[in-house]
Design goal:
There is one protein chain. The chain folds into 2 domains: 160 residues, Rossmann fold (3-Layer(aba) Sandwich); 316 residues, no CATH class. It is 40% helix and 22% strand. It contains 15 helices and 19 strands. Strands 11-12-17-16-15-18 form a 6-stranded antiparallel β-barrel. A 5-stranded parallel sheet has the order 2-1-3-4-5, sandwiched between helices. The chain has a 4-stranded parallel sheet with strand order 7-6-9-10, sandwiched between helices. The longest helix has 21 residues. It binds manganese (II) ion (MN). The site of manganese (II) ion (MN) has 5 residues, from loops.
């Protein structure tokens, strides 16, 4: 299905036909030019001059599945009472692009005719007021429309809208329940569906085992060939790899049949399975599916959504867990990994398929898994928690590094990073906010995008960055608590 964004330009009927024709021609030109620089087409819809025109185009936007969001701009002045009825009913993400057709004020040319035509500076203020008055969630981007930095910001907002749709259509397949006694991976699924749209349901592990028994040797041969093409096989235990292929094919088949884009499982419920899915879960994540260990459906769905917000709707993002620290002064790092399931989209090198004993859980046989080091570079970790009555999304900026040691006996994929503002303050902030041990780590979705996403989904957002202090964060959380209780 096509994905597009609608460009709605505000005006009124006081300017005469010539001005309005110029506005429409320029709006079309801008939409065409911008579409070349953006990941999705921006379609010019209308130069709106009345309440009924605005209400009509917004109703159309709500009902058209191909419309992922609207972008508004006022070349001329557009009285905002005309927008109230339309905006009140808007159900799509909304970006107010405060731009201007011309780059410069033309010294010689400028006269009152020019001023009448080019009045975005006050037109966009009138337009902004009504959205503020209506307390609407919106993204405001100001700047010249041909500026590549401005275009990048619009591109990022478009990706956020892809994440909004991914959320509203999210279905999560749970194999088994949450790990016994764990708190942070729990949550109110009904509230989550109301707020975020997720359908989170359980399928029996026995049904998966039954589906696995139906997978043919030929199908396994084909997936094995794919593994071989993408990864280095560093084990003689081919049967273990083939067993993971069987698990992957069966899980994918069940998810696709049920429209699920994310799944969770738990090592405490592997009834009838020989191995915890390792390579299988990793290769499913590589294809854009979300995953959460120990029944963590929240991190699983967030991983699928954040991946969808990345490059080509399957970005460099994956399920992660804070494992252990390096606390040497001046060289403080977190080491992130999981029992098996780290997404190869995070890899700096070609992943190796290895088999090792896994002591935890009920693994009868050594599970195959991908082993690699994570990339260096700026990234974020994100955790969605249920505060009771509301969801809180916590995002921390991190700087991933090439692991500072080999760790030759660590049989899993790993990522090493420095959390902002520094490791120990960052840990204090994270724990203060209640962030989970499970996160989604992303190299191509940043905090601004997740802040935009949280605003649209109407959930609390907390950002830990280079300037965050524990004292400042405590105050912010205290105020947030009050605000969210009043809503
Ligand atoms: Mn875990």
């Amino acid at each position: 299905m096509k994905k597009e964004f609608w460009f709605i330009v505000g005006s009124q009927d006081l300017y005469g036909e010539e001005v309005l024709r110029t506005v429409a021609t320029r709006a079309q030109e801008m939409a065409t030019e911008l579409s070349k620089a953006l990941p999705y087409p921006l379609v010019y819809k209308v130069t709106a001059m009345s309440n009924s025109q605005i209400t009509d185009v917004i109703r159309e936007a709500n009902y058209d599945d191909s419309c992922y969001g609207i972008i508004t701009w006022c070349h001329t002045f557009s009285p905002s009472k005309m927008w109230i009825n339309g905006l009140e009913g808007l159900q799509k993400p909304y970006c107010h692009f405060a731009t201007q057709y011309n780059l410069e004020i033309p010294n010689e040319e400028i006269d009152m005719d020019f001023m009448n035509l080019n009045q975005a500076a006050h037109g966009d203020r009138e337009h902004g007021f009504i959205a503020a008055r209506l307390r609407m969630p919106r993204k405001i981007i100001a700047g010249y429309w041909k500026d590549s930095e401005v275009q990048k910001r619009i591109a990022k907002w478009m990706r956020v809208c892809i994440g909004v749709r991914a959320s509203k259509t999210m279905r999560v397949m749970r194999f088994g329940d949450n790990m016994r006694e764990v708190a942070v991976t729990e949550g109110d699924k009904v509230e989550t569906q109301i707020k975020l749209g997720w359908q989170v349901n359980t399928w029996a592990t026995g049904d998966l085992v039954k589906e696995m028994s139906k997978v043919s040797e030929k199908e396994i041969d084909e997936l094995f060939a794919t593994y071989k093409a993408k990864y280095d096989i560093a084990t003689d235990n081919i049967q273990a790899i083939r067993y993971q292929a069987r698990e992957e094919i069966a899980m994918k088949r069940m998810m696709d049949k049920n429209g699920c884009r994310a799944f969770s499982n738990t090592f405490q419920d592997l009834y009838g399975m020989e191995q915890l899915p390792g390579l299988a879960s990793q290769h499913l994540m590589a294809q854009g599916y979300g995953y959460g260990g120990e029944g963590d459906w929240k991190v699983s769905a967030m991983t699928a959504i954040i991946k969808a917000m990345g490059e080509n709707e399957n970005g460099s993002s994956g399920f992660m867990e804070d494992y252990t620290y390096h606390l040497v002064k001046g060289k403080e790092y977190s080491l992130g990994a999981h029992m098996l399931e780290v997404c190869p989209s995070l890899a700096a090198n070609k992943p190796r398929i290895e088999t090792h004993h896994l002591g935890i859980g009920m693994n009868e046989k050594d599970p195959a898994r991908l082993v690699f080091d994570g990339k260096a570079g700026k990234a974020i970790v994100a955790s969605l928690i249920d505060m009771g009555g509301r969801m809180r999304l916590i995002v921390q900026d991190i700087e991933a590094v090439k692991p500072i040691m080999d760790m030759p006996n660590l049989p899993v994929a790993k990522v090493m990073w420095r959390a902002m503002p520094d490791l120990t303050t960052g840990v204090e902030c994270w724990i203060t906010a209640g962030g989970a041990h499970h996160t989604t780590l992303s190299y191509d979705v940043d905090a601004e995008m997740l802040r935009d996403w949280a605003r649209i989904m109407d959930i609390e957002f907390v950002h830990i960055d280079k300037d965050t202090t524990v004292e400042g964060l405590e105050k912010e959380l205290m105020i947030n608590d009050l605000v969210w209780k009043l809503r």
